[in-house]
Amino acid sequence: MGAVPHLSFRIAAGLLAIATGSLTANAAADPYQVEVVVFARPVDPAALPEANDHRPGCLARAQTPARGAGTPGAPSAVGPERLQLTAEAQALQRSSAGLRLLAHTAWQQDVPATASGPWVRIGDRSGQGLAGCLRAKLTPVPEIEIDLVHETATGERHSLFGTARIRPGDVHYFDHPALGTLVRLDALTPTTAGATGDDAAPPPAGAPAATPPPAAESSPGKTATPAAPEPPPPPPKKPFRW
């Protein structure tokens, strides 16, 4: 009989450890918006790396961002009003260097700290031969991994893959002789993650802080104390130059 209380204690301690681990795993994930711009550039075949038959293995298990309410924590597609790289995408389309936009997409997802998040499929624009995906992980600075393949109309295949750490609000450029990719991450609060509409959109980089409410009027006979002048907002970040 004396062993029963000891056994019960061990069972209770095990259940507590499992519950604590579950809470930790659920808490160790932050909501982010991920935005990707992929473009092709004309290139001299002699400047290309040696051809390979690389195919993104992530495509077999990649998730496509869903519109509207989906599985909690799964990638959720966002509308064009929430895109932060519109100016950059428009600039490359106007470029006289022969650049061609292949994909411009964005989604929201929970980024875990203890393991990489799910692979997310990067959408193609009108069947231009682009296939690939991206996944993210929280480290002291968020880390993303990308794996892309572009097949041209003439059957040439170009691969772009790699990893990089991106501070929230910054843009990372993955370079390749025939391809280019911009990736931006924006940290979201739990109240804005999954929201729609302009009011919930993350503020552009360099946007001034919200204007505080006006101070209450002073009582008759009392001198009102002038409010301290607001500091000027920081200069906005310049769009990516082509």
Q: What is the structure about, briefly put?
A:
The protein has 242 residues and is of the alpha+beta class. The chain has a domain of 161 residues.
Q: How do the helices and strands follow one another from N- to C-terminus?
A: HEEHEEEEEEE
Distance between the termini: 78 Å
Oligomer: single chain
Strand content: 25-35%
> What is the general shape?
globular
Tally of DSSP β-strands: 9
Number of helices: 2
Flag low-confidence runs: 1-5, 11-27, 196-201, 204-219, 231-236
Main structural class: alpha+beta
Our Rg estimate from Cα atoms comes to 24 Å
With strands numbered from the N-terminus, the spatial order across the biggest sheet is 2-3-1-9-8
Mean pLDDT: 75
Helix content: 10-25%
Biggest sheet architecture = 5 strands, antiparallel
Structure notes:
The chain is of the alpha+beta class and 242 residues long. Helices cover 14% and strands 29% of the residues. It contains two helices and nine strands, in the order αββαβββββββ. A five-stranded antiparallel beta sheet has the order 2-3-1-9-8. Strands 4-5-6-7 form a four-stranded antiparallel beta sheet, with no helix packed on it. Strand 5 and strand 6 form a beta hairpin. The N terminus is likely disordered.
